[in-house]
Every structure is written in structure tokens, then in C-alpha cells.
Write a structure and sequence with these properties.
The complex is a heterodimer.
Chain A lengths: L2 H26 L2 H8 L2 H7 L2 H32 L4 H16 L2 H16 L6 H28 L2 H9 L4 H16 L1 H14 L15 H12 L3 H28 L4
Helix pairs in contact in A: 4-5, 4-7, 4-10, 4-11, 4-12, 5-7, 6-7, 7-9, 7-10, 8-9, 10-12, 11-12
Chain B lengths: L22 E10 L2 E11 L4 E5 L6 H8 L7 E6 L2 E2 L7 H6 L1 E4 L11 H11 L5 H14 L15 H13 L5 E5 L7 H16 L3 E5 L3 H7 L2 E6 L2 E6 L1 H6 L4 H10 L1
Parallel strand pairs in B: 3-8, 3-9, 6-7, 7-8
Antiparallel strand pairs in B: 1-2, 1-4, 4-5, 9-10
Helix pairs in contact in B: 3-4, 3-5, 4-5, 5-6
Classes of the chains: A mainly alpha, B alpha/beta.
Chain lengths: ~260, ~260
Amino acid sequence: MKRSTRRRLTQGILYAVFAAVILFILLSADWGRIQPYFFNLGVARETFPEILTVAAKNTVIYTAIAFVGGMLFGLLLALMKLSPVLPYRWLATGYIELFRGLPALLVIFGFAFAVPIAFQWQAPGGSVGAGLIGLIVVSAAYIAETIRAGIEAVPKGQVEAARSLGMNSVWTMITVVLPQAFRIITPPLTNELVILIKDTSLLFIAGMAIADRDLTTFARDSLTNQANATPLVVAALLYLVITLPLTQLVAKLEQHNKRGR
Amino acid sequence: MIQVSHTAPDATGHGSGAAVPAIEVRALCKNFGDNEVLKGIDFHVEQGEVVCVIGPSGSGKSTLLRCVNRLEEPTSGTVMVEGIDITDSETDLDDVRTRIGMVFQQFNLFPHLSVLRNLTLAQQRAKKRGRAEATEVARRNLEKVGLSEKADAFPAQLSGGQQQRVAIARALSMDPDMMLFDEPTSALDPELVGDVLEVMKQLAREGMTMMVVTHEMGFAREVGDRVVFMDGGVVVEQGKPEDVLGNPQHERTKLFLSKVL
């Protein structure tokens, strides 16, 4: 058999398998029963406008708070981990290993209930605020490792050039190392952000007032009230509406930044 | 334009009155682990003098140069810059470094900053100059290296030769008393070497104190006041370029020159 014929045959088989799988799923699903429970337009319409004005808005706000908090705290941890002072390195390493090893749900629960009882302390923003601190604590552990990797990926010659010009280590870090490190880690940081958007759905464990509900919590409540899963589908679509433009934006940003490398 | 203390143009380094040497290295040793790279170097550069350091790779010449602004930490021995012991922990190293310009083999421009910003950054952060003054100094030095029109370009948009000239302008923008060149043309395509050497010759003519680690024997012969030949971590031979390059006394010098000339 000729090489080109063989290649065409292989490709043909791959396409056929693909089409068969799709066809099988479409035909074996009971569309008549799925439609009223998952794609019910009437129920979908009832979730509006609250699912946008309350739930989606809250999800975005929670994500923004957790990401900014996680970045600041993560940067501090990364600098501690690279510090010449040994106890700082121990502390940062211990922290990162601990909170990367625990489920986010447990940490959020801990900050919402265990910490307030243990320290007689009320987080700003009530139970959601306490849960958000838990989310920040967890995301900082992941972000810290990403930032550390980024700092270490900046060529040593950059630091040498800055120091040879008489800039001290702090200015060198701020003006030379960090800007380059953040460019290098833009893709993994986007990843952290997208994961964080979805992890805001864990905040429900802290307990939420009606007006504090995020997308998933809102949709689950609607599911219970209406005995219909359509709100979950609407919530799922809204998550995509949030994440897809974001990843597109970052891809654009990366293209833009390439000129500087 | 550049603050330089002149000695007589024909000074070969000795007996220029009471002037403190720009660089004075005594009994300098540097080990990397078990590897002795510098084995008790005595070395000096007078003010206004151009000293070219030549030798085979691994001879320790770059390490010697990097010890002068303490990018490498000497294992033992003293390094005096304008009479100040830079190995003393009381010395303000950042302040001394603003007076020592350094040019690297790999240019080490800051890739995330425009050419102009490359030149103004350390002026503002280390010399505390205002933006306007820093910009003026930067533009003057860009003109000096013939790259005025590249002020708004980014390093990645420049050729290697242009990048190295920007690096020289960046070092000059600190108004240094002396310049260290660490194989400034070794990473360049052959047709780009000439422009960089031309800028260096111009600097030498203006009386800049220069220590140049180089493989460009033509440059050493034409511009150098003194040539130092290093091999195996020691200074083997030094003197006027026509003597060291034209009539070497040591076998190792003869062997090296027979390979490169």
C-alpha cells in the first residue's frame, strides 16, 4: 500500500470513529425527558435577572477579591521562600506544603467556623468574608509557587546588570525581576484565576445570606425550589461567559508582551 | 561630559604622581568549590588608563573583572576602587557601583523596557536623578553611541551590535569614573563588532579609565595602554601592547598568541 493511501485510510478511520461516538451519544440520550428538566426555557427565564445581577456579579466579586488577595499574599510567600533568611524559607515552605495538601473546602470551613471560635474573631464581610480568607489562604499557596518559579526563570544576567548599575536589591526586584517574572508566568497565573473562578462555588460551606449567593449556590437553590435542573445549565453557561473572554484576553496580552522579550 | 581624571596620555600605569589608582587588586584569590580560579592576583588600573586583559578561556580574566565590582565575592585578598576597599562590609557597595560602569558579553539589557527607559531606570533609582535630567543624560549618551533614533525601540528590535552600544550608553548614563568590559564583542556577529569597538575607542580617546577583557588583539594593540596576559589564574606577563603582543617573553604567552594572531 502506498504511504499516502495508508495515511488517507488512517484519517478516514479516525473520522468515522469520531462520528460514530457523537452519533451514539446523541441517539442514546432520551431527549424527550432531558429537555423539560435541563433545558426548560420557562424555568430558565425565571432565574433572570437575579442570576446575573446577584449570582454572577457575586462570583466575579469573590473571584477578584480572592485573586488579588492570593497574589499579594502569594508574592510575599514567594519572596520569603527565596529569602536568604533560613526561618523565612522554612515558614514559607511549610505553609505552601500544608495548604496545597488540604482540600479548599476544608480550609474555607475552618476559616468560617473554627478560626472565629478559637480566636473570638469576626471576619470583615461576615461568613462569606471568612470563607474568602480561606480561599485566599489556599490560592496564595499555589500562586506563591508559580511566582517563585517565575522569579527564578529571569536570567541571572538581569540581576547582575541592575546591581552593577548601583540599584539595590529591592529596586532590582521591583523594576527588573518582577515585571519579567510576571510576563513569564502569565499563562499559569491565568490558569490559577480560572480555577479560582470555579472554586468560589465552595464558599457556600461558610453559609450565605440570599444576597450573598454565588452562581452555583444560586443555581442549587433554584434546583431545589423548582425541582428542575435548568438553572444549573444556565449557571454553567454563565461560568463559560466569564472564563472564555478572560482566557482570550490573556492570550492577546501575551502576544502583546512578546515584543518585549 | 564624562567626569574623568586625566593622567598624561602616554601613561602606562606607573608613577602618575599622587593619584589613587582607579583599581587596585592585591593577592586576590577566588575559588569555586575546589576549583581555584584566581591564585593570588596583583593587578591595578591607573586613572585614565586603558588596560586590556587577554588570555585563554578559563584563565580567570572574567572572574577578575567581576571581582572588581564584587559581582563575584573574592575568597581572599583586597580590591580597592579609587582607594575604597570594596570587600569591607562597611563600604556602601551600591554607591561604589554607580561609579563603575559595566558592559557584559550578553548585553543584559532589560527586555521589558524601552531603550530610553533602560538608560534612565538606574539614574532615577540609584542616583536619585529626576526624570527630566535622567532623560536628558540618556539622550546625550544615545547620541554618543549613534542610536538616538532608537530611544523608543525595545531591545529585541535591535541587532546585537546596537544592543551592546545601548548597554554602553546605559553604563555611561551613570557618569561612571571607569568602565569594565567583559568580552563585549564575543557574542556579536563579525560584521557588527566594528561599531562597538569604534564606540570603545572613542571612549578611550576621551580619557575614560577602562578595563577590557577581550579577544580582540587588534583593539588591545591599538587602544590599550597596557596589556595583561593571564593564564591558569595568574598574571603571566604584562606591559605595553607592542611588547606583550609583539615580543612576548613567556612560553605560555607565545603559545597563546600563536593561536590567536
